[in-house]
Amino acid sequence: MGKLAVQKYFSFMMLIITFLLMIFTFTGLYGGEVPPAGNTARAMLVYALPFLIAGNIIFLIYWLVLRRFHWMLMPLITLLCCIPYIGTLYQFGNLDETADAQPGLKIASYNVAMFGRETSGFMAQDILSEMKKQKVDIVCFQEYNDHAGDKKNSDSYKDYFPYMAVGQGDMVIYSRYPIKKTKNINFEMTNNSAMWAEIEANEVTYRVYNAHLETTGINRTLHRAAKMSNNGIEVEGNSLVRAIYGNYTIGMIARSGQANMLAMDMREAQVPIIVCGDFNDVPYSYVYNTMLGDKIDGFKECGSGFMHTFRGGKKMVRIDYIFHDKALNGLSYYKKELSYSDHYPVFMKLATK
After folding, report:
1. Which has the closest alpha carbon to 317: 113, 48, 134, 39?
2. Ramachandran angles phi, psi of 202, nearest 5°
3. Which pLDDT tens digit goes with each residue over 210-246?
4. Are 105 and 133 in contact (CB under 8 A)?
5. Do 218 and 244 form a contact (C-beta atoms < 8 A)?
6. What is the radius of gyration, based on Cα positions, of the chain?
7. What is the β-pairing status of strands 163-166 and 172-175?
8. Counting beta carbons within 10 angstroms of the beta carbon of residue 156, is it exposed (0 to 12), middle (13 to 18) or buried (19 or more)?
9. How far is it, in rounded angstroms, from Cα 229 to Cα 227?
10. Where are the alpha helices (DSSP H) in 122-236?
């Protein structure tokens, strides 16, 4: 085979890869439109979108360097269609530093990981100090633990947050404004749950949802595999991959059912809705789309920079959110890189239109 033939063959293979990359990317962009049950392969492509976008950038540069502008159109069009998705992870512009001085409601969501199960209560107090510093009016905690030795964290929180709504297990909503009504939403066959509280602030009643959806199961699987390996039991790589994939797909299907349940509950609300929580799922997934509905993603509205909320291991992903009703207007949205949990807290300042 001559040199020219090899070059043509290589270019043809690059063209095929570019085309397949485009197809996979578009499939991932719309993978969150269908329930994961029965569509797991399509739904899983949503999680690969950052890598697919990176691949499209590489091939855009590749065809640009070769001056094959007609083939360059494939990754270029694909990347242009990815702009809304990229906006869920990165926003240009600067944070409005004057937002806290404006009238409105400051809300926070934080998975506190049981305060590390420490008995001194210092971690809970540090987090309370941060909430005061950020001038938070309402905070939604997931994986909350009220017991710190022989004391209760809620006893020290009530000076700043005089109102409290307790959910099932590890859920709680603290508020500086009166809580008028609450509801617990329990999910079957899981320790995860959700709740909401209707809170009257500045003569406006809001329904604030606090949701902790099904976990991925990856960390649990890896921990079990590491424990078996430490005990001298050989763990095959293929078996570990199958276990991770199985647990992840099961969790993905469970989360989709939980999101559907919450979406149905939200339709009954007669007041503006604010949705907070640890969804354990990424933007553009079925869970994200279902929980978002016709509401607004606070980060896309008024966030700045790169947003990821999970800090465990090397998985820099966004799985904690604050959404709100269109009757409200977002003024600021940001996270604080606190080290008390494997999650970062997210904060948002809202005002009525």
Report:
1. 48
2. 55, 45
3. 999 998 654 544 444 344 344 444 434 444 344 445 5
4. no
5. yes
6. 23
7. antiparallel
8. middle
9. 5
10. 122-133, 153-157, 218-230
